[in-house]
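RECORD TYPE: protein structure
NAME: tRNA 5-methylaminomethyl-2-thiouridine biosynthesis bifunctional protein
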Amino acid sequence: MTATASVARGADMPMQDHWRGRTRYTVFDSDHGDGARVAALIAAWRADPQRSQHLHIVALASDLKPGFHRIPQAEAGITLDLLAAPLESALAELNAHLDCIRLHAPVGSAFARPLARLTTLGARLNATGLDDAQRTALAAQGFVFENDDNAVFASRKPRLPVTPQPVRHALVLGAGLAGCALAARLCARGWQVTLIERHPEVALEASGNLAGIFMPLLSRDDNVPTRLTRAAYLYALRLWEQLGGVGQAFDGAACGVLQLARDADHAAVSRAIAVDNTVPSDFARWLESPAAEALLGLPAPDGGWLFPQGGWARPGSVCEALLASCGARLTRCFGAGDATLEREGDTWLARAPDGAVLATAPTAVLASGAGARRMALTADLPLQALRGQVTHLPPGAAPQLPLVLCREAYLTPSAQGVLCAGATYDLDADPALRASSQLENVTRLRALVSDPLAADDAPLAGRVGFRCVSPDRLPLVGRLPDVAAAGSTERLRDVPRHPGLYGLLGYASRGLIWAPLAAELLTAQLEGEPLPLEMTLVDALDPARFVLRARRGVRQPASSTGDL
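PREDICTED:
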C-alpha cells in the first residue's frame, strides 16, 4: 500500500480531506518510534496536490536529550518538533493547536485535560491501547468516540485563541546575528523583510569579531539557563548543517571546545554532573587530567569538559550565509544611520536621522543589540552594554591548539591567521583598544595554558565590541512591553504590549547560538505555529518578565548556582 493510500484508509493517520484547504495542519503523535510513521505522513502530504500549505508534526521521542527539539527541514512547508519528555509534562509545556492526534498506549488519564486544552474543534483522535478510564476521561473533556479507538473533538469550552493570519511583511532593525537570523527564518515562511542597518555592512558591532565560540552550558540542577542554552546550541548545529555546515557555508570549524575545570572543587562538581546526568558523549564528555592533557598537549591538572560538536565561527560570515538563504524576499537598507520607529495607524515607520521614511510594515522587530537602549520604545528595558576587548595574537605568540580552549578566558585556533584571546567585561564605553585590557587578556591566557607566552610582547591588536546584556543574562525574545501602561499587572499574559513590536535583544556572549533558536521562536509566535520551546522556557525569555520583577522587587542573579 502506498503512503497516500495508507493515509486515506488507515486510522493511524489524518485523512487527506481533513487537511485540504487549510493554511496549517498540526499532527501530534505520542510515539515517534523509528520515524517511519512520520516519514509516511510527510510523503502523503507531499503527494496530495490539495494539501494544507503547512504541515507541522509534533511527536514524542525517547532517544534525544531532554526538552523540545525543532528539527529543521529542507522543505519550508514542513516543520518537525520532537519532544523528549513524558506525555503529560510534554502536553503541559506545549503551545500548539492540534488538528490530529495519535496516542499509543498512554499511561494513566491525567493527560486528557492538557491534551484537550491544545485541541482544535473538529480535531481527530486515533488511539491504541486505551482503557475504559482513559476513554471516560477523554470524553469528559469533549472527545466524542465513534468507536473504541477513534474520536472527534467537540468541546464547548473556550479554546485557546488562534493567531490571525499575519500580513507577512516586517521591518527588522539590526543586521548582526540576531537580525540576520530572523530575516532568514521569516523569509523561509514567505515573509517580505526589510533589514535596516546603521552601518554599510553586516556585523560591524557586537557580531563583528573574527571568531565567536559555540558551546553549551552544564549545571548540576539542569536549570533554566542550562536548558535554554542546550536547546539553542542543538538547534544552531542543526540549522548550520542545513545551510551547508560549519567551515563550508561560513568561516569556522567544529573542532571541539575544551573547558578546563577551575580547580579541584570544580572538577568534583563536574564529575558529579557526568555521573548524575548521564550526559551523552557526543554532547559533552568529562576528561580527567591525563586524557585532557593528551588531547591538548598542555597541562590540565584538574581535567575538563570536552564538547565535541563545539567550535568557533566568524559571526559576520554566518550573517552573510543567513542572508544568502533569504533570496528575493529580503530588502537590504544598509548605511541608514540611527533609524527610529514610530507607529502610524496599523503600520510601523522606520525613519532615517533626517526624518525620511526608510520603510514601512505592520510588524517591526528590534534586533539592534546595545543600540536598542537609545530608542524611546525600549529605554525602560534593563539592558546594559558591556565592553569586550578581544586580543589578536600572531600564531607564534601562543600555543597552536587543535580546538578551542576556555576557562576564565578563551583561546581559538588560527582564524584568518590570527589567534583570538579574550575577552574583557568592562563597564565603560571606551571604543578604543587599550593596553590595560590586552594585559588582562594575556594574563588570563597565561593562567589558562600554564605555559610561558610570547604574547607578553605582542603589539596592541584586537577589537572592541559592546555586548547587550540583561540582568539575568538571558535574551529578550517576543512582544515588547509597554512599560508606561503596565499598571499593577501581575501576570505575563496581562502585561500590555506595543502593537506589532517585537524584540530580539540581550544575547550577551552567546549570540552565535542564541540567534537561530530565538529567531525561530519569534517567527513561530508571529505565525501562530507550535512553539519550539517549553512554555516555561518561552516565559523565561519574555521581555515583559522585567516589568513583573521590577514591581515585585525581585533582584535577579547573573546566573543560577551550579553552572559551569
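COMMENT: Confidence is low (pLDDT under 50) at residues 1-14, 557-562.
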